[in-house]
Amino acid sequence: MKKIDMTQGRVSTLLLTLALPIIGSSLLQFTYQLVDMLWVGRLGSEAVASVGSSTFFIGLGYAIQSFVVIGTGISVAHAIGEKNKIKIKSYINAGTLINLIVGALYALFLTLSAKRLIGFLDLNHAGVSQGATHYLLISAPMLFFNFFNLLYARLLNAHGNNQEVLKINLIGILLNLTLDPILIYGCGQGVSGAAWASLIANGVMTLLFYSRFRPLFRFQPSIGFERKAAWDIVRLGFPMALQRILFTFVNIVLAKCIAIFGQEAIAAQKIGLQLESIVFMVIGGINGAIASFVGQNHGAKQNDRIRIGVNYALGLAVGYAAVASLLFILIPRPLTLLFIQEEHPIRMTCHYLQVIACSQLFSAIEMVLNGFFTGIKRPNIPALISIIFTCLRIPLALLLMKPFGVTGIWLSIAISSLLKGCMSYYLYRRIVRRRLLSGKDTTSDDQSDHRHDTDHSIDAKGICCE
């Protein structure tokens, strides 16, 4: 299998080589989401609200499973940097088995609890609740397949082999786009048709990933399931997974607040989030590239390359986010009209985009630096930042709802994103970048890591003692 050595060569070229296929996959995914929402949007705001309500619990599944993807990805990237083939396979074995267990249990949970979960949101609309419940039930097995797709993609990214991920994503998305109108309208399935299309496409993608890269992904009995490898995955992935889980729970609480203002408000946030993915798809590509780049270079002790790479990635991300912010401020209505034609949801979506526009810059900074912290095996830092400021959204929303209505909820999201970006950059500049990458403490940190961690991860004292 083709593998890119990120410890050598021009930094900017390497990062673009890593990022562009991920961005391409994200662009394809966004195109799918755009067309999917266009088909669903033609059913009206009630259908959009049904899909939007169920996606909170689908997102919770991704949040829980992220500890497997993140932990396995970090561990494999470091083992590649160390050129240790046995450790690479040990981590893949452990990650695959854990992923299988988590996927099966969560799919079973959604199947048994879908109606109660949707009922918790207090949607106060029988049609929206019924559509959301059906969508969630069909999405349960879809998540099982997609959990493997996410893990397989992350493993290939760690090897620097992103082009194959792009190709398989393209096949899955084209299949999904073909099935959407057939199942939604041709078969009269409505919202459920969109869920069936996603289920079929993700199942096909899982088969393609596994058949194409069977030697890499298959469980190797001679190595087996090593408890130390499993612990490393859980230890490294849990902080970021906890962040995402809490983030999802906060969004569920906010959804209950949004539901007070009607199904149009739920639809407005759903459409707004789809448009925000214009930013996240590119920044997410840079995040994935910097995580793999930093992971390999940290494993090879190439600190100068890490610093150069992070600075370059930040410049790209902030520049792109600035352009997106201007579009949200200046032309929110034409963007919203891509999804829905009803006037009241259009006005609410436009207002949402204008309120959260400036926060895109700070979200970009946070996402890039998340990749950096992940790459140096310190995912606890961005996790703590996100947990604190994401949870702040709830009291902020309750406080601001009184004078500003639903706009107060949008403001709580924007303010927390701004604070997360500022704190991430502060810690990068004042602690990690200056102390760990300037050369002042590199030797002492490496010696401490050798005494305390056989994988040479950065000692927590090296981060927090300033």
From TrEMBL:
InterPro entries on file: MATE_fam (IPR002528), MATE_MdtK (IPR050222), MdtK-like (IPR048279)
Residues spanning the membrane: 12-35, 55-79, 91-112, 132-153, 165-185, 191-210, 245-266, 278-296, 308-331, 351-369, 381-401, 407-428
Record's keyword terms, sorted: Antiport, Cell membrane, Ion transport, Membrane, Transmembrane, Transmembrane helix, Transport
Main location: membrane
Membrane topology listed for this record: Multi-pass membrane protein
Presence of the UniProt keyword Ion transport in the record: yes
Function summary: Multidrug efflux pump.
Similarity field: Belongs to the multi antimicrobial extrusion (MATE) (TC 2.A.66.1) family.
Protein name: Probable multidrug resistance protein NorM
Organism: Turicibacter faecis
